[in-house]
């Protein structure tokens, strides 16, 4: 399938979870406490897309048989990353509007008292920065700094994982799966970098 | 000479609140029905009943159907039955709020036995049917405040725990009551999950005076029907002034003890959940405030956020149990 067709198709796939959420909300199918459900689900979607974005390069490098390969996915990495930003913003908005009722005095108190909320601030600022510098133009202008700036997506993933871990009550499933995948993806990158630097001292 | 004392007024004689409030409409309808010769004699029945039938033995549904209505003045609006039975924390069936309704279909709450043991004069294994024999069931509309800062208002059907405890006759040495939920991994998929911090079976406990308090209820039904599986069938505790996790579900064992018993949540995260777990807006959970609660159902654009009351609004009845105690320390 040519790139021009793939692009809108992948965009639609990226927005599918949001479309589903909106439909469920309008049909009042989110249960007795839709606010919490919305915040919870948009948070999950953010993490899924962070992990998918991080997986693009390793998939391309590891899976390259004749028929099955992921070279076609590489041009869509920006869209996947922007989708993660989109769900992160939806997550924050849902929290501010539906949980806090836009009462910003409560927000101040919550930020001071709850480290698991506070540490999402740097993650969010970084994610917005990465979104803003994701264009071809910015890539050219930033040159070699672009790579360094954009490797902070790993820091974002680690902060997001801490955000999940610090909220564990009795179920470690999410923290375990998100943490394990983040570690795996980060580990692969570090391993490759180390190997390359040893090869070209 | 035989002196006959007048019987106490049976609850069936007391006009249920909703009928009293609608007395004009009631009179009009009653007149209409009487005119048609259809008026029936008043029988004891729960004031709040849904049409939906929960499967279970007829002796139980009959007893529940004959429970006396709650005659206390109606304050809070009830949480609809559909939410009460689809939004549950019952980790034995999964962590998601919808899991208990979804995954409790295989659970068989009948027949059921309860072991009562420890510091009592009449220990034994009792059939639920025998426990309910001679026990007057009553409807109680209680607020339920979850430690996660949401709340509901539920019309339970049950009997005071004190009535059961008196029957088994606690010894003088008994200071606490320990409860245990059934452990059946084959019927409760949540008990098979790994990466959980709770050591099954779920256990809870009360001080004996808390257990004997007239507000402390053993529920077998809600909304005039048999307790659905996801709500803790067939027998659960309801302690309305404590966070919901104290109100242990599907109880198979009650033990009277001399020492404070093991309780699942306070053992899992002692800095977050105490033994007492009284509803207290002044003591935050480490990760969220307890000053407010979302009274369900809480809509998206009109969130139903209300201030949380000390002892969930039951302070008048229960505050004396904790005289002289530092409730910040004994949270």
Choose one word for the global shape of chain A.
Answer: globular
Strand tally of chain A, please?
0
Mean pLDDT of chain B: 89
Structural domain tally of chain A: 1
The CATH topology of chain B is: Sulfite Oxidase, Chain A, domain 2
Order of helices and strands of chain A: HHHHHHHHHH
Termini gap of chain B: 56 Å
Quaternary: heterodimer
**Biggest contact:** A-B, 25 and 30 residues
The count of helical stretches of chain B stands at: 10
Based on secondary structure, the structural category of chain A is: mainly alpha
Give structural attributes.
heterodimer, A: 201 residues, mainly alpha, B: 331 residues, alpha+beta, Sulfite Oxidase, Chain A, domain 2, 5-stranded mixed sheet, globular
Describe the structure.
- The complex is a heterodimer of chains A (201) and B (331).
- The longest helix of chain A is centred in the N-terminal third of the chain and has 29 residues.
- Chain A is mainly α and 201 residues long.
- Chain A is globular, with a radius of gyration of 19 Å.
- In chain A, 78% of the residues lie in helices and 0% in strands.
- Chain A has one domain.
- The model of chain A has no long low-confidence stretch (mean pLDDT 92).
- In chain A, helix 1 runs parallel beside helix 3, helix 6 packs antiparallel against helix 9 and helix 9 packs antiparallel against helix 10.
- Chain B is an alpha+beta fold and 331 residues long.
- Chain B has a single domain, classed as Oxidoreductase, molybdopterin-binding domain (Sulfite Oxidase, Chain A, domain 2, Alpha-Beta Complex).
- Helices cover 18% and strands 20% of the residues of chain B.
- Chain B has 10 helices and 12 strands.
- In chain B, strands 3, 4, 7, 8, 9, 11 and 12 form a 7-stranded mixed β-sheet that branches.
- In chain B, strand 3 and strand 4 form a beta hairpin.
- Chain B is globular and about 45 Å long.
- In chain B, 42% of the residues are buried.
- Chains A and B meet through helix 2 and helix 4 of A and loops of B.
